[in-house]
Amino acid sequence: CLTEYLNYLTTIKNRSQLTALNYYTDLRMFMRFLKVKNKLVDANEDFSEIKILRP
């Protein structure tokens, strides 16, 4: 779903690859934040180590 959205940004909305990459980075950070907020992961876990996809 995220990949489809990024493709939409670059093809339909004519946004640059860099813009799509920045959206991707921001969305990943937000998803990680939600996991911590909803106590799906330990709050002390390194933010960069939190996986955003289900196993």
Automatic annotation (TrEMBL):
Q: Which GO terms describe its biological process?
A: DNA integration
**Which controlled-vocabulary keywords does the entry list?**
DNA-binding
Annotated membrane-spanning segments are none
What GO annotations for molecular function exist for this entry?
DNA binding
Q: Which residues form the Integrase SAM-like N-terminal domain?
A: 2-39
Keyword flag DNA-binding: yes
Do you know which InterPro entries this protein is assigned to?
Integrase_recombinase_N, Integrase_SAM-like_N
Q: What is this protein called?
A: Site-specific recombinase XerD
What is the phylogenetic placement of the source species in the record? unclassified sequences, metagenomes, organismal metagenomes
